[in-house]
Amino acid sequence: MSAMIDPVIVARIIRETAEDEILPRFGHLAAGQIREKKPGQMVTEADVEAEKVLSRRLLDLLPGSKVVGEEAVDADPTLLRNLEGAGAVWVIDPVDGTSNFAKTNPRFAVILALVVDGVTRAGWIHDPVTDRMVVAEKGEGAWLADQRLSVLPDGPLDMLNGSVKRSGRLASLVAQVGRRGSAAHDYIDLVTGVLHFAHFKKLMPWDHAAGVLIHAEAGGFSQLLNGRAYQPRSCDAALLLAPTEGCWRSLKPLVE
């Protein structure tokens, strides 16, 4: 993958786009710049404009590549088919945590993955407010600047912190569990010493392709609850991420 693109250049494109299209709109959105694209799903002018800029610049960076962006797919769902064939595909979530962004909650981020021949080769998650950029290339580890990242060590259930939308009886068995509106930040937290585990349903590639790679490169174990490996495509299966396979197996019956 490194022969195809320079991950540092991609990181710069993400940062510049966030500085130009996202941060200036944070806390300054007018009513006409926010709409509901589907029941319970918001989109803002920042989402739309940032995805346009990222798409254009990334296609210029890697001629012949394609883009699967959240907002473009909303307009044309057939674009998801780009992930089923050969070639390089940029997978873009321009503002993950849009509802938080619209409410001036700083828990939002940009997620970007490069998928080549159906395999996620690199992932970037950028928190514009704190200027944190987590990056991973397949086989090269996960990094925050010059710090190599690792998942938290395994431990007994009552010592674990997790992110789950509906916790049920799990809440009484672990140290802490909840959800705060941004998959990107959950993935950052999984590799920076905040969360031990996370559980997601209705997987869209722009939410998870980069994060699953980053988590794996930080030493974590993840798998769909149906026993299959995660693939960067849209699917209805549930995903569980944990520090180790043993921990994953302990948590699986509690989140099913």
Notes on the structure:
- This protein is an alpha+beta fold and 256 residues long.
- It folds into two domains: 142 residues, Fructose-1,6-Bisphosphatase, Chain A, domain 1 (2-Layer Sandwich); 99 residues, D-Maltodextrin-Binding Protein, domain 2 (3-Layer(aba) Sandwich), CATH 3.40.190.
- The chain contains seven helices and 14 strands.
- A seven-stranded mixed β-sheet has the order 3-4-5-6-7-8-9, sandwiched between helices. A five-stranded mixed β-sheet has the order 11-10-12-14-13, with helices on both faces. A two-stranded antiparallel sheet has the order 1-2.
- Helix 1 packs antiparallel against helix 2 and helix 5 runs parallel beside helix 6.
- The termini are far apart.
- The model has no long low-confidence stretch (mean pLDDT 94).
Q: Enumerate how many helices there are, as a single number.
A: 7
Please, what is the average pLDDT? Answer: 94
- Count of domain modules: 2
Strand portion, in percent?
25-35%
Cα distance, first to last residue?
36 Å
The strand line-up of the biggest sheet is: 3-4-5-6-7-8-9
Approximate shape: globular
Question: Features of this protein?
Answer:
seven-stranded mixed β-sheet; 256 residues; single chain; D-Maltodextrin-Binding Protein, domain 2; 2 domains; Fructose-1,6-Bisphosphatase, Chain A, domain 1; alpha+beta; five-stranded mixed β-sheet
